[in-house]
């Protein structure tokens, strides 16, 4: 065999070996392990997760623990707003001033500035000569009336009977006028001890609330009408604002408004009063807004902005601004499906009064997360970076 023929046979053999190897690779069983296929499978899985945007798995109990609230999407009337300055004031219908009705000396302080007090709680103890005289007269008049009543009209004259009854009632009324409560008076009469007519008495809280004023010192002699305490229930406050006549034309008692505490935070309020006389200096019309202040966010004297709806508005499917975040450059909400929250891109329209119109992407009745969307977004991002699932 020549050298040339040997060379040709060698090349042919190599070609056969290569072809056989290729055929084996092509016909390898699907369950066969190979290191080449694994990366392709991983790329597919990662590609599907990225395409769906990821999912946050979170039960209702977990959502509550993390402060995530949800609500169904619904139709709303979106109106233009006029934003005007406002000032927080006390709700005078939930406030009280406590003052003695007679001249007296302050004996002891029972409550302090900032204390939360209950109805009927003692605030301050006073002492008065006038009160001592009135307390003594009541004890005497009550004893006399008891004797006359026991004797009856058959024994005493009609005049004496009536005078004794009137004297006892007048003595009781005088103590009520001086500021003692019916319970305090009854305890004094029941005891019947003249030594208890010391002239000391307590001023009591007429309502639940917080002490916001206690301008006095122990030992001070104060006149009748001097305000010693001011108490207010801060769970509701008023916000006073001024509107132009055009703006005021749309303001009605019962209308909802927004109180803008800062650029990122607002609370709801309700118009409770609209004045009927323009301010002579500013030519504006004052309105009074009642605001639920259970969170103690607002305090008298604080300046805020008030967003008042003007115009008829437009009916639209809308979601709260706080429910929307940007993901991959698109406005996105988190749609609740069982224990999963799915990031869902939406097409938005106009924004009015803290609400964003939804032009596409959601339907009425869909449940979405209405807050903590940045938390949910961060969980998605961590999941996509391979730091675990968004639980």
Describe this structure in words.
The protein is of the alpha+beta class and 391 residues long. Among the domains are: 55-79 and 315-384, conserved putative lor/sdh protein from methanococcus maripaludis s2 fold (Beta Barrel), CATH 2.40.420; 94-232, OB fold (Dihydrolipoamide Acetyltransferase, E2P), CATH 2.40.50.100. The chain is built from eight helices and 22 strands. It has helices at residues 3-26, 37-52, 60-65, 129-151, 158-178, 182-191, 245-248, 373-384; strands at residues 56-57, 70-72, 74-89, 95-98, 104-109, 116-117, 122-127, 200-204, 209-213, 221-222, 229-232, 236-243, 256-262, 265-274, 285-292, 303-320, 325-327, 330-337, 340-345, 347-352, 355-360, 367-369. The strands form five sheets. Strands 3-12-15-14-13-16 form a six-stranded antiparallel beta barrel. A four-stranded antiparallel sheet has the order 1-19-18-17. Strands 4-11-9-6 form a four-stranded antiparallel sheet, with no helix packed on it. Helix 4 packs antiparallel against helix 5 (158-178). The longest helix has 24 residues, at 3-26.
